[in-house]
Amino acid sequence: MLEQLNSIDQKAFFFVNSDLSNSFFDWLMPLMRYPAFWAPLYLFLIIFFIKEYKIKGLYLIAFLLITFAIADFVSASIIKEYFRRLRPCNDPALMGLVKVRLSRCSGGFSFISSHASNHFAIATFLISTFYQRWKWVLPVAFFWAAIICFAQVYVGVHYPFDVFCGGIFGIVVGYSVSKLRKSLVPIDGIN
């Protein structure tokens, strides 16, 4: 059973990493991995929270940081260390087959993707917080997180199962912290 799942995961990986190769993705997907590319969006959110919600905006920022911290710490320091799955770009069995679209393959382990965990946690927190006010936040936030996940596979540092499970974990974290925030710090117009 595990061998079958691993085989499906590898086939899906090579479909994204090799079969979908094109010059536009070769340019864009490596950028999607780097904080300098997506940090302006999160900086905008921080400024927006403070401007729109004043003191309660600081609470939103604090809970957003808690969301990120939990997703990042648990995925990187606990789950990855427990499973210790090699990244595709570091797997000796796949040497020469993986198209690594970075200057070097990332260190550490592959399962689960911390990028997926972090961005889906943030996306879910934002959706749970703002969906009643702005319905568009759901497709936009999930699309953003999904593109970042796709990039992890495309550049060769994660298998699809890594980002899928990271995304699921992130959704659980984001939803849980959002529920906690709603019970501790209700904010008019966004609960």
Automatic annotation (TrEMBL):
Signal sequence range: none
InterPro entries the record matches: PAP2/HPO, PAP2/HPO_sf
Alphabetical list of SMART domains matching this protein: acidPPc
Name listed for the protein in its UniProt record: Phosphatase PAP2 family protein
Record key words, sorted: Membrane, Transmembrane, Transmembrane helix
Pfam families: PAP2
Domain Phosphatidic acid phosphatase type 2/haloperoxidase per the UniProt entry, residue ranges: 61-178
Record field: transmembrane: 31-50, 57-79, 109-129, 136-155, 161-178
UniProt organism field: Solitalea agri
PANTHER family attached to this UniProt entry: AT30094P, SPHINGOSINE-1-PHOSPHATE PHOSPHOHYDROLASE
